Structure formats: C-alpha cells, structure tokens
C-alpha cells in the first residue's frame, strides 16, 4: 500500500474516531463533525441504541460502514447530476457554434450581420467559460473562472444594450430605404449616392399627397449591392378623368350634396340658388345628370332659396382662406351677389380667398350689396436656372412654390452625376402653381460594359440601348477561333460619349486561298476543296467546254476566304443536244455515244444536268462596312451568298457616305434579311 493511500486511510480513521467520540460524549467537539453530520444525516438515537447493544469498536465499525454507504450514494447522485449538466452544456455549445456559423455563412444578406456575429461569438465564449468552471476541482480556480464568466456575461448584456440604444453604432451593410410617403427628392439623392438607376412613374392617387412616393419596385432592407435599378411610383394627385357614380340627389339638403361632391372629388360643379315658393330652403330641385360620369364633367345643380320675403340681411362671415367653391357657395346660400377677381399672392394658396369687400361682420342687404371676392392665383413664379441648382434646392423651391417636378436621368460625360442636365423651362419663364416641370439629371459618364470574347451581341445591344454607333469588322486570325472577338476599341469601364462608336473586330478564323478549279474534274475539285478546307457545291450545265470538267466557280481564284467557305462549282455536261438527236434528253449524244463507250455507261456516268442547289436554304445576312476600305467591306460580306460586287463613286450618288460604305438602298435591301444561297445578289460599295 502506497504512503498516499495509508495517509488517506489514517485520516479517515481519525475523522471517524472524532465523529464517534463526539456523538458519545455530546461534547463541543461535535461541531468539528458538522460536515459529516450534513453528509450522513444520521440520527443520534440510532448511535445510542447501537452503543447499548454493541461494544465501542463494533459501534465504530458500524459508523464507518454507514459513512461509506452514504458516500457512495452521494457520489452516484453527483455523477448523474454532473453527467446531465455536461450533456446539456455540450448541446448548448454545439447549438451556439452552429448559430455562429449560420450568421457568418447565411446571414450575408442581412445589413446587421456584424452585430449577429459578435453577439453569437460572445454568447459562445460565455458558455465556454461557464463549462470550464465545471471541470476545475480547486476552489480557488473555480472562483476565478466564475468571476471571469460573470464579467463576460455582463459584457454581453452591455453590448446588446449599447447597440439597441444606438450608443454604439456598428458598421452595417447598405440597404434600400423605405421611401413610401416621402418626397421624390429623398429617393433621388439616395439613388445618386449609391449609383442606382432610378426611374420615376407618376400615378393618380386620392390617398397620397401630390409628389409623394406611393410605391417602390425594390423592397426596403434589400442590400444595395444586389440592386442595379429601381422604379418609384409617385402620386400625381386625384385623377379627374376617373369615372364615378353620382346618385340622383333631387330632394337632398345642400350639406349632403356637398359631401358627395367632395367625396367623389368633382371639380366642375355649378351650383345655383333661386327663390322657390313650394320648396324648402337649401333643397335640391334640379340636376342635369346622374349615374356614371367623369370627375371633371360639368354638373349643374339648382337649390331653393325658399320664399323671397323670408330672406333677411346677414352678417358676412370670414371667407378669407376658404376655397373658392366653399366661399361662393356660402354667398349663394344666403342670396348674396358677388364678383370675383384673381390676383397673385405670396401668402395665400392658389384658389383660396385673399380678401373680401366689404369685410367680415358687415351686415349684407341682399338687394343692395354685392360682395367682391379676391381669389389667389398663387405666387407669381419665375423659373430659376435649374442647371445651377442642387436637387435639394430644386425640391425646396418646388415645395415652396407648389410646383410638381417630374425627374428622369440619363448618362452624361459633361455633367457630374446627380446634377441637372436640362429642364423643360428656362430661367425667367413664368410658371403657375400646380404646373409640372420636367428635369433631367445626370447619371454620370456612361461606362463601357464587361464582355466575353463570344458576346458580340451583348455589345451590339448595349450600343443600341444607349444610342451609340456600332461597327463590326472581321479579320483573319490563326489564333482566334472564328466568330470570337479579336479586339474592341473601347475598354471595359471606359467613359463613353453619347456620340461615340464602338468598333468590334471579330475573327474570320484561319485564312484560306481559293484555288483555280477551272479545268479540274469533279474528283480533282473535291480533293482540292478538302485540302483547302472549303465546302464545295456542284452544279451542272451544258457547255461547249470539255465535258465533266469545272467550267465556273463563284469565288475568284486566289481570293482569301475563311475555313468552311462554300464554293459553288459548275461542271460541264457537254454541248446541249440538238432536236435531231435520237434521245434529246440524253446529253451524251444518244446511241452513237453509247456505242463509242461500248455500251458501258457505268464507266462514265452522266450527271443530272439540273442544279443541285437547295433553294429552301436561306442565310440571314448583316452588312458590316469597313470605313475607308472598300475591299475590306467586300471581304466582310457573307461568303455563303453569291455576290455581284459593283464599286461606285460617291459623286454618282446624292447620299452622304464614306469610302467602304454600301449604298443605302442595298443596306435596306440586304441587311438583316434572309437571302437564298442559290441566287446572286448585286451590291454597290463606294470606293472613291
């Protein structure tokens, strides 16, 4: 037995002796055994009973056994408790690790991803610190780890509070804002700052104030890195062309009728009052239309003033600031005649009363007094120079003067992004409240797009979209595959002017020279085609030239063409048979010829004299001139088509053109058209 075990056993026996002695003598020493007392929770009565029945040694041994039993049970319970705690700790840490990984990988589209990562990392650290404390056995180490864990937990809570209250502002990813119910200028400034193409669409609305944003095509909180363009829908106020249902209101009181008028936003209603002996005052007795009508359709209504003798003088109400409709209606209801004049006003909105004559409170005798109303035309407005104003200044001016602004944007290499290029009115022009001014802002310089070597159509579409010129040239190349781009004169990201032309050079593939097929037999011609990587088509025709030899080729010998170019070869069938020949359908000359061939036609087969060209085959052709080089333009023509090239002088044609260009009528006739591969087409190219 090792010294360590002997020492431990001796300590154990000493503790048992002390426990036993304390229990028997009921002395103060029992306080030293309080630890054992709590662990075994053994009643004193049992020990006293055992002492009476057994000697002291036996009682001591019994206490030892009882203590061992309690210790084993305590250890077993503690093991179960520790296992459950460790298992839950393990599950917690796995979940927190997964949460951290999820925030790093899958929350990239969240604007507050950094906060989520830091928060989940702190939570994992707190849990790890807590778990470390469970494995330490020394009290000093446990106390230290517990303090650290508490500090970490406080840090986690504090971090969340600081972020939630915006005391600490972590960097967030740029997202699309919610522009609904905001002025257009807010969206424009944001779009320009984030280089997003913003388009504005105006729609009528009864709910939204004029010139406020109702909808946006991109949902708020979408990452701006995923947005290239956005459309906003702006309120243009009520639609007065909208059809509404108006009831027959005869017999209604004026207040109820006015409610219908305003609810349906009718803006062309004429109300008249007349004395009526039989009809109550303010009751409608005539209406010229009802049912379906437009808001701006004229509607004429008549109401009763009651009996003339019942009309009494009335004090004039304060009509200033009232809408013209409401002010004149009050005068009509009280049988008061009025006159209207219109004036500009810097303080009173358009369409509202500036002043009355006489003033409010004056008692009006309807038979003697006519009230004069002065209605505001709004401010007298002169248009500023919008090209020298910022968008904020324009919007402020528009709001102050109650002018509607319709914004659009376009690329400009001369005007900085966000600045005004032009406006629909010039400086000093008169405008009225409620008018719409159209303003074009700059999106900055147009940049050349990125492209791959097989994306000619993408470049062409880009040029067409932005009204740029586009020229496609072709060159032979031993290294670039046919149809692939060799070079473009504009680099990706290069600034472009609206008047610029993009020139793309495309590979024709490897250069091949057309041999001279004239005089060759068909077999020799086929071999020559294969050797020169050409595609040959054979036709047959009667000719005085040697039979079964090539008499014509549609590509000039020595001309340079691309691999796979189709060359049409015509082979002689000999002379055309005369009517006296015994078998005119046989171009070989009848029986005599057969006899000369010893009756064996298989040794010298006669081909069909009809052309073998398939007239159902067509090719879509594009004319791609090379400015300054007529020969290059001719080479650029589609080699699958038979061309009759005619070179002409610019002096012979009234149109303005450069050398190398094709006359306009031929471009209209052939460019983008499907041409038959069997026919020959004449094309005119300027060479001088």
Overview of this protein structure:
The protein is of the alpha/beta class. It contains 15 helices and 32 strands. The chain has a 3-stranded mixed beta sheet, covered by helices on one side. Strands 5-8-6 form a 3-stranded mixed beta sheet. The longest helix has 50 residues. It is flat.
Task: Give the arrangement of secondary structure elements.
Elements: H1 3-25, H2 34-40, H3 44-53, H4 56-105, H5 113-135, H6 139-164, H7 184-193, E1 197-203, E2 213-216, E3 229-235, E4 243-246, H8 254-263, E5 269-274, E6 284-287, E7 291-294, E8 299-304, E9 314-315, H9 324-333, E10 337-343, E11 353-357, E12 363-364, E13 370-376, E14 381-382, H10 391-401, E15 404-410, E16 420-423, E17 430-431, E18 436-442, E19 446-447, H11 456-465, E20 469-475, E21 485-488, E22 495-496, E23 501-507, E24 511-513, H12 522-531, E25 535-541, E26 550-553, E27 560-562, E28 566-572, H13 590-596, E29 618-621, H14 630-636, E30 642-648, H15 664-670, E31 673-676, E32 680-686
Parallel strand pairs: 1-3, 5-8, 10-13, 15-18, 20-23, 25-28, 30-32
Antiparallel strand pairs: 2-3, 4-7, 6-8, 9-12, 11-13, 14-17, 16-18, 19-22, 21-23, 24-27, 26-28, 29-31
Give the CA-based shape.
flat
Residue share in helices?
25-40%
Number of E-type strands: 32
Spatial order of strands in the largest sheet: 1-3-2
Task: Determine the strand fraction and express it as a percent band.
Answer: 15-25%
Low-confidence stretches: 25-33, 35-41, 580-612
The N- and C-terminal alpha carbons lie at a distance of: 120 Å
Q: Biggest sheet, in brief?
A: 3 strands, mixed
Rg over C-alpha atoms, rounded to the nearest angstrom: 51 Å
Q: What structural category do the secondary elements indicate?
A: alpha/beta
Let me know the average pLDDT.
80
């Amino acid at each position: 037995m090792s010294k360590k075990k002997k020492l431990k056993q001796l300590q154990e026996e000493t503790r048992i002796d002390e426990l036993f002695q304390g229990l028997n003598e009921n002395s103060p020493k029992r306080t030293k055994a309080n630890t054992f007392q709590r662990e075994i929770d053994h009643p004193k009565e049992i020990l006293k009973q055992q002492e009476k029945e057994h000697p002291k040694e036996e009682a001591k041994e019994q206490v030892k056994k009882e203590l061992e039993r309690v210790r084993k049970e305590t250890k077993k319970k503690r093991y179960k408790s520790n296992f459950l705690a460790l298992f839950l700790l393990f599950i917690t840490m796995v979940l927190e690790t997964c949460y951290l990984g999820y925030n790093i990988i899958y929350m990239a589209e969240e604007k507050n991803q950094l906060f989520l990562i830091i928060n989940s990392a702190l939570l994992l650290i707190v849990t790890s610190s807590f778990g470390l404390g469970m494995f330490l056995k020394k009290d000093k180490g446990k106390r230290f780890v517990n303090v650290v864990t508490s500090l970490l937990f406080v840090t986690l809570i504090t971090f969340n509070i600081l972020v939630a209250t915006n005391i600490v502002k972590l960097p967030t990813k740029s997202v699309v804002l919610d522009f609904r119910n905001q002025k257009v200028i807010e969206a424009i400034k944001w779009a320009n700052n984030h280089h997003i193409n913003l388009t504005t669409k105006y729609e009528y609305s009864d709910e939204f104030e004029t010139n406020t944003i109702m909808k946006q095509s991109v949902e708020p909180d979408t990452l701006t890195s995923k947005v290239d363009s956005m459309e906003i829908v702006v309120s243009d106020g009520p639609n007065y062309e909208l059809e509404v249902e108006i009831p027959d209101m005869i017999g209604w009181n004026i207040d109820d009728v006015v409610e219908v008028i305003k609810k349906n936003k009718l803006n062309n209603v004429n109300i008249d009052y007349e004395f009526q002996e039989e009809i109550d005052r303010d009751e409608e007795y005539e209406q010229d239309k009802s049912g379906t009508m437009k808001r701006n359709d004229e509607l004429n209504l008549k109401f009763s003033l009651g009996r003339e003798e019942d009309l009494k003088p009335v004090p004039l109400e304060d009509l200033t600031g009232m809408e013209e409709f409401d002010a004149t209606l009050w005068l009509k209801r009280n049988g008061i005649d009025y006159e209207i004049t219109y004036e500009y006003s810097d303080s009173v909105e358009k369409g509202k009363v500036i002043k009355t004559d006489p003033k409010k409170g004056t008692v009006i005798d309807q038979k003697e007094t006519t009230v004069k109303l002065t209605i505001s035309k709004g401010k007298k407005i002169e248009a500023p120079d919008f090209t020298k104003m910022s968008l904020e200044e324009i919007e402020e001016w528009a709001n102050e003067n109650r002018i509607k602004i319709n914004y659009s944007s376009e690329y400009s290499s001369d005007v900085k992004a966000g600045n005004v290029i032009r406006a629909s009115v010039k400086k000093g022009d008169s405008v009225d409240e409620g008018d719409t001014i159209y303003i074009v802002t700059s999106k900055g310089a147009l940049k050349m797009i990125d492209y791959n070597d097989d994306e000619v159509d993408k470049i062409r579409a880009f040029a067409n979209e932005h009204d740029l010129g586009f020229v496609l040239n072709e060159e032979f190349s031993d290294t670039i595959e046919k149809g692939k781009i060799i070079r473009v004169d504009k680099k990706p990201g290069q600034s472009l002017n609206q008047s610029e032309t993009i020139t793309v050079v495309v590979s024709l593939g490897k250069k091949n020279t057309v041999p001279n097929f004239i005089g060759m037999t068909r077999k020799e011609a086929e071999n020559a085609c294969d050797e020169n990587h050409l595609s040959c088509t054979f036709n047959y025709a009667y000719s005085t030239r040697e039979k079964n030899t090539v008499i014509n080729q549609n590509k000039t010998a020595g001309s340079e063409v691309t691999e796979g170019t189709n060359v049409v070869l015509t082979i002689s069938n000999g002379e055309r048979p005369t009517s006296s020949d015994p078998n005119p359908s046989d171009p070989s000359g009848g029986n005599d010829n057969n006899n000369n061939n010893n009756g064996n036609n298989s040794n010298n087969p006669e081909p069909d004299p009809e052309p073998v060209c398939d007239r159902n085959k067509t090719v879509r052709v594009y004319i791609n001139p090379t400015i300054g080089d007529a020969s290059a333009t001719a080479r650029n023509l589609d080699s699958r088509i038979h061309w009759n090239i005619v070179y002409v002088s610019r002096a012979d044609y009234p149109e303005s053109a450069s050398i190398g260009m094709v006359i306009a009528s031929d471009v209209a006739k052939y460019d983008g058209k499907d041409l038959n591969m069997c026919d020959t087409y004449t094309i005119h190219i300027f060479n001088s």
